[in-house]
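Usage

Read records sequentially. Each one opens with the input sequence:
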Amino acid sequence: MYIDIHSHIIPGVDDGARDEAMSLKMLRIAHDCGTRHIIATPHYVPGNTRYQFTDIIEKCAYLNNLAVNSGLSITVYPGCEVFITPEIVELYDQGLIGTLAESCYMLIEFPMMSIPPYTDTVLYHLQLKGITPVIAHPERYIEIQRKPELIGAYADRGILSQVNSGSITGLYGMKAKRTVMRLIKEGWVQFVASDTHSDNNRNPDLENAAARIEKKFGLKMRENLFTLNALKIFEH
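and closes with the structure output:
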């Protein structure tokens, strides 16, 4: 069984699923590869996104009905992928953004080119509020590719990281693939997720990446990164 904590499976809210038909195809792909729990994490970019977290909760309930009616044993949970901003705590207090499956974990996205100078302060204030930040796909950020040990420093502070299955399989190029393997080898990664955006090349099938991780790092690492660590999200 896999647990996918990062997906853009809700139709029509961001650059993910185009429509309900594509969402259903994505759910079927995830189900058929062994995923039984998937968290919907539409992008939230302050000043550019127009939804409240209650909207995401309602859309997930709709997708769950769609899955049941289609004979799929998979559950969709609400979440969001929040672009780093100094106002994250305020956005959370206003109910505009939420945590992964309404837990104490929040998925945070950085800019691709460089990490903003206010990042450490923002993540610290989230932690003070009892929220554990989860950095989305750090292996894709150019600054992390140049200095992977930055993720080690975050890990030392109790900040977690989620890498993309596509980085493991080479979908995002060799720099991302080398970086993701280094981060996993060092023990700085807690989750592998699909970050699925469609039913095509960025689909939610985790099996290929899981097999590669087992071959390189062993079965225990596979179980931790694809299932066991994510189970802790649902315990909080």
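Summary fields computed downstream for this record:
- The CA atoms of residues 113 and 142 lie 5 Å apart.
- The mean pLDDT is 97.
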